[in-house]
Amino acid sequence: MACARVPLDEQQVTEPGPLGKERTLPALHPERAEDRCFVPYKPPPEEGSPAEVEQFLERAKFITEDLEWLLALPHDKFWCQVVFDESLQRCLDSYLHHAPRGLDLAALPSSPAVADTQRSIHRVVFLTFLRMATHKESKENFITPTVFGEIIYENFLFDIPKILDLCVLFGKGNSQLLHKMIENIFTQQPSYYSDLDETVPTVLQVFDTILEKCGLHCEGATAMEPMKLNAHKQPTAMTMSQQELTDIVSYLCDSTTTIHAFLDIFPAACSSFYSHGFISRLTSFYETAVPDLEKAVRKRNFDDKGLQEDLWKRLSHSSRKMVETTHLLLHHTCLQPILEGRENMQTFAEELLQHFTSFLPEKRFLSDYDEQFPISDDVSLLQQAVPVIDETRTSYLLQGVESAWDSVGRRKPQ
Amino acid sequence: MSPPRLTGALRSFSNVSKKEDFTEHLDDLKAKRRKRHEWFARDGLTWQKIVHFCTEEQDKAKLQAASQELKSLLLAAKQIVGTEHGQEAIESAAVFLFETFHNKDHVGTEETRAIKQMFGPFPSSAAEASCACVARLVAPLGGSQIEDFIQTQSSRHNQRGLGFGRNIAFSYDCYTLDPLEDLTCSSIYDESASLDF
What is the ipTM for the molecules in this complex? Predict the structure, then answer.
């Protein structure tokens, strides 16, 4: 056992070596990790044969047993295993990759044994990540915060895709714990903010890819590039195969849910997304892609009406998440500083009004946004907090909102 | 195969995560079974300890009966692990069977699965026989006495429920579809309404 009240990264332990002779080692040392041989996770088989189900249960039992064993280890042994056992990291990674999300198309496991096993593994994976995100377990068991930051970053124990996976897999019911975990990770290792900054353009690229697959293009993305002469030959949402359309809608559903879950749980990330012009790219994407995909889902001939209904729900869910994400970004970057009475309130108010004004040409987006988050409420709030706001400008904005409702042929709920 | 995911794209196209090789290891379960076997053989509970526990402070008649049951348990274990294994492997299997059946009155699905995972396919009669042997062995002893013995001797049992996070209220809730409207109510966005030249 390691010494008390000294951070783990400074502790030394004396224990018998492989030949039985006593030796002194740093408490965090590869030779102190056990050769446990964690197996990677595979998702439950869809309508699998009994043999496939048995294999899933066996694999899942191994993982659950091994992670329970890991969680029962003392602090020093736990960290040796986490840092030096690559099979453990592969196992955790494979769970984040392959664990079924609540939104996946595949039905939930029908067998109670499979469902119970999946639940057990789900819990124990979360607790493992929770322990990995905790640098101080007790007065005796802790790691120097800066060293903890280095350990988790250098060994890729957490990275941005993993954090996003954690949010979408566990965030619905464990948002407070996840918030604490992610906050601690970013506080102890600010390099994650740089990584996040590096990731946002790739997130934007995902939306561009969806547009491209639908034979569309978005303002702000490839607007500067000339259209290829053969662009008209590209398949569209109406002409692509049904499988492709299903994949695109599922991809959009997963992407919008994941981004929203992450920003909702960790609002400090909003500024990174905001600074990359995420709002205008997202609203422009919405205006271009949503009506096109809706039309395809509604008008195409589906043999399986259940699939058509499901795709519609996914699309509608994605639209809601995009609107909610825009609201989250505006709330945390513009509105919150005004409500908190921070300095430069007028600058934040100006930015908020500019965003609302930029929504005016995006009529479909604007009416959907206004339905969920009435712009008149925010304008009224602005007028109270910053009385110098130009009334002509706000009236113009509110008239534009009304006109957007008319343009899309909808009546605003009273 | 997993459906397309945002995080999959981020792993592939950004430089913020480790590039993992997820090529399948077809025999990973086999290797794991072997590893578990080794690990179980090193566990704190040994056949000698079980023999001592079942035979100490017994009168002559009970001692004789217990010795007979222990022999039968070893025999059943031999049938389960296979005759090609040595005494050490057979005793280790008998320990596993004792741990598995010490609080069971029949061979259920869980027990069948546990034995299969540890030793591969096995004759069900041997499992039935070992379950009956263990039941007769522990019958004269108190339930709590047996539990205490297992808890103190077996590191496998010691870890259960004592790990990090045991008091954390974990929620199994997950995100589900939250659409704005059903397809049947979607006529408001019909093509004719959105023509805005």
Answer: 0.91
